[in-house]
C-alpha cells in the first residue's frame, strides 16, 4: 500500500502570489479549470495501490474541508485527511510530526508533493524507479537553464546508477542544471533518518541559544524559530545525498513553479494543453451558435459568452462570467463573476473575482516565454514584461487600457496605466 502527503503551507506563505492569495489560499487557486492542488491529487489517484492522501498545512481546518469533500466524491477509493501543524514546521517538520498517522496501515512508499508547482507528474514511473533502486528516497528532478540553476535546489546525479551524489539548495556557483521539482517518494524508514536530522537541528538550535544568551540576540534573529522546524532540503536531502541514500528520477514531461501570481498563467496554459492532448471532454469547442474557440479553452457551464466573442488559446473562464459581443480573450484566467463588456480585450492576464471591464477596455500583459521571466516584475522600480493582474473587484472604465500592471483589489481604473503596481 502507498500513501501521499501534499504540503499546502499556510496563510503567511505565498506572499508572492498576492493579490490573488488574499481571497483564497494559493493551493485552491484555479489553473486549467481546477484548483492547483487538484492536479496533484488527480495524478496521485492514478498511482497503483495509493490509498490515502494527507494534506499538511498551517491553514485553519475548515478551509480545505469543502474541497476535500468534493475530492472524496470524485476519488472514492482514496481516503483524504487534512492535518494542521501547530506552527509552521518547515518542509519536513510537519511530515515528521505527523509520522504516526502517516505510517498507520504500514505504507510501503510515501509520496511527498509540494503545492507550488505544476507538472506532468509521471508518478508511476517515479515509483517504479524508486522500487527498483531500493534507496531511502527518490527525488524527481528536471533540467533547467544553466543560467537560472542558482534559483533552485540543484542535484548532481550519476547518470548510470541514478544516485543523487550532492544536493545543494540555491547554490551561489554552478553545481548542476538538474533542479528539484518538489516531488519525492520515500520508504518508511525515512522517519528514522529524519529523527536523527531533527536531533542535529535541536543541538544547533541550543548552541545558537547559548551563544545568544552569552553575547545577546543578533538583529537578524528577531523571528522566533520553532525548535521542531525541519527543512527537507537543507536538513534532510543534503544529508541523504551525502550518505548515498537518495536516488534521482528525471522528469521528462513539463514542470514549472507556481510562485508568483503571474506564474498561474503559464501553469494554466500547460494544464489546458495537456487536457487538449488527452482529449478531455470538459474543454470548450466551437459550436454553430457559440463563440469562436481556438486551442485549449475551459469555460464554466454557468458562464455566458456572446457568440461573436473570440476565445483562446489557453483561456480559463470561471463561474457566472459574462462576456459581451466582440470581446477577445487570449492566454488568460478570468475568475468568478467577472463582466467583460462589448469589444474589450483581455490578453496574457488574470482578471480577479467580481471585476468589470468596460466597453473597448483593454487588459493586456506580455507573453511569458521563459520560466525566468515570471519573477522579473520590476526593473529600476518600473514593472516590465509581465502578466497583467487585476485583483478582486477592480472596475476598468470604458476604453481604459491597463498594460503590464498589477492592480490591487477594489480599485476603479478611470485612466490608462502601463507598467505600474496600483496600490
Ligand atoms: P523558495 O521560494 O524556494 O525560497 O521557497 P518557498 O518558501 O516559496 O517555498 P518552499 O520551498 O518553502 O515550499 C515548498 C512547498 O512546501 C510549498 O508547497 C509550501 O506551501 C510548502 N511549505 C513550505 N513551508 C511549509 C511549512 O512550514 N509547513 C507546511 N505544511 N508546508 C510548507
Description:
The chain is of the alpha/beta class and 423 residues long. It is 22% helix and 29% strand. It contains eight helices and 35 strands. The protein has a seven-stranded mixed β-sheet, sandwiched between helices. A seven-stranded parallel β-sheet has the order 14-17-20-23-26-31-34, with no helix packed on it. The chain is globular, with a radius of gyration of 23 Å. The structure holds guanosine-5'-triphosphate (GTP). Residues 7-9, 13, 56-58, 85, 88-91, 94, 114-116, 182, 259 line the site of guanosine-5'-triphosphate. Belongs to the transferase hexapeptide repeat family.
Q: Mind summarizing the main beta sheet?
A: 7 strands, mixed
Strand content: 25-35%
Tally of helical runs: 8
**Gross geometry:** globular
Mean pLDDT, all residues: 92
**What is the radius of gyration?**
23 Å
Helical residue percent? 10-25%
Which molecules are bound besides the chains? Answer: guanosine-5'-triphosphate
The number of distinct β-strands equals: 35
Low-confidence runs of at least 5 consecutive residues:
none
Instruction: Kindly report how far apart the N and C termini lie.
Output: 50 Å
Q: Class by helix and strand content?
A: alpha/beta
Strand order in the largest sheet: 5-4-1-6-11-8-12
Kindly summarize this structure in a few lines:
Residues 293-422 form the Mannose-1-phosphate guanyltransferase C-terminal domain. This protein has 423 residues and is of the alpha/beta class. Helix content is 22%, strand content 29%.
How is the topology of this model organized?
Layout: E1 2-9, E2 30-31, E3 34-35, H1 36-45, E4 50-57, H2 65-74, E5 79-84, H3 90-97, H4 99-103, E6 109-114, E7 117-119, H5 123-133, E8 137-143, E9 153-157, E10 164-169, E11 178-187, H6 190-215, H7 232-242, E12 246-250, E13 255-257, H8 264-277, E14 292-293, E15 297-299, E16 304-305, E17 310-311, E18 315-317, E19 322-323, E20 328-330, E21 332-334, E22 339-340, E23 345-347, E24 349-351, E25 356-357, E26 362-364, E27 378-379, E28 382-383, E29 388-390, E30 395-396, E31 401-403, E32 406-407, E33 412-413, E34 417-418, E35 421-422
Parallel strand pairs: 1-4, 1-6, 4-5, 8-12, 14-17, 15-18, 16-19, 17-20, 18-21, 19-22, 20-23, 21-24, 22-25, 23-26, 24-29, 25-30, 26-31, 29-32, 30-33, 31-34, 32-35
Antiparallel strand pairs: 2-3, 6-11, 7-13, 8-11, 9-10, 27-28
Amino acid at each position: 500500500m502507498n500513501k501521499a502527503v501534499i504540503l499546502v503551507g499556510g496563510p503567511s506563505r505565498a506572499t508572492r502570489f498576492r493579490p490573488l492569495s488574499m481571497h483564497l489560499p494559493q493551493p485552491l487557486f484555479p489553473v486549467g479549470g481546477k484548483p492547483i492542488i487538484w492536479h496533484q491529487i488527480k495524478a496521485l489517484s492514478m498511482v497503483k495501490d495509493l490509498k490515502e492522501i494527507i494534506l499538511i498545512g498551517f491553514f485553519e481546518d475548515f478551509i480545505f474541508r469543502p474541497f476535500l469533500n468534493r475530492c472524496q466524491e470524485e476519488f472514492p477509493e482514496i481516503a483524504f485527511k487534512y492535518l494542521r501543524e501547530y506552527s509552521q514546521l518547515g518542509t519536513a517538520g510537519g511530515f515528521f510530526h505527523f509520522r504516526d498517522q502517516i505510517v498507520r496501515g504500514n505504507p510501503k512508499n510515501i509520496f511527498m508533493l509540494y503545492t507550488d508547482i505544476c507538472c506532468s507528474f509521471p508518478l508511476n514511473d517515479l515509483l517504479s524507479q524508486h522500487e527498483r533502486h531500493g534507496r531511502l528516497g527518490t527525488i524527481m528532478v528536471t533540467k533547467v537553464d544553466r543560467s537560472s540553476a542558482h534559483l533552485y535546489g540543484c542535484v548532481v546525479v550519476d547518470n548510470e546508477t541514478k544516485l543523487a551524489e550532492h544536493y545543494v539548495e540555491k547554490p551561489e556557483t554552478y553545481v548542476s542544471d538538474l533542479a528539484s521539482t518538489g516531488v519525492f517518494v520515500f520508504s518508511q524508514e525515512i522517519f528514522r533518518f529524519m529523527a536523527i536530522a531533527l536531533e542535529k537541528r535541536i543541538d544547533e538550535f541550543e548552541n545558537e541559544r547559548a551563544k545568544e544568551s552569552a553575547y545577546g540576540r543578533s538583529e537578524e534573529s528577531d523571528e522566533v524559530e520553532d525548535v521542531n522546524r525541519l527543512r527537507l532540503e537543507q536538513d534532510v536531502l543534503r544529508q541523504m545525498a551525502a550518505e548515498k541514500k537518495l536516488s534521482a528520477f528525471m522528469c521528462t514531461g513539463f514542470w514549472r513553479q507556481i510562485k508568483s501570481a503571474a506564474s498561474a498563467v503559464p501553469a494554466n496554459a500547460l494544464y489546458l494543453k495537456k487536457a487538449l492532448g488527452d482529449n478531455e471532454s470538459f474543454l470548450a469547442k466551437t459550436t454553430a451558435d457559440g463563440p469562436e474557440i481556438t486551442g485549449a479553452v475551459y469555460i464554466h457551464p454557468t458562464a455566458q459568452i456572446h457568440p461573436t466573442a473570440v476565445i483562446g488559446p489557453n483561456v480559463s473562464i470561471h463561474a457566472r462570467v459574462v462576456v459581451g459581443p466582440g470581446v477577445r480573450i487570449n492566454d488568460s484566467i478570468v475568475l468568478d463573476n467577472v463582466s467583460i463588456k462589448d469589444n474589450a480585450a483581455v490578453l496574457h492576464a488574470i482578471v480577479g473575482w467580481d471585476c468589470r471591464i468596460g466597453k473597448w477596455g483593454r487588459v493586456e500583459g506580455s507573453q511569458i516565454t521563459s520560466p525566468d521571466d515570471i519573477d522579473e516584475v520590476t526593473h529600476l522600480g518600473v514593472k516590465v514584461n509581465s502578466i497583467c493582474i487585476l485583483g478582486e473587484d477592480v472596475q476598468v472604465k470604458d476604453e481604459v487600457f491597463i498594460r503590464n500592471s498589477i492592480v490591487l483589489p477594489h480599485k476603479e481604473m478611470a485612466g490608462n496605466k502601463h507598467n505600474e503596481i496600483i496600490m
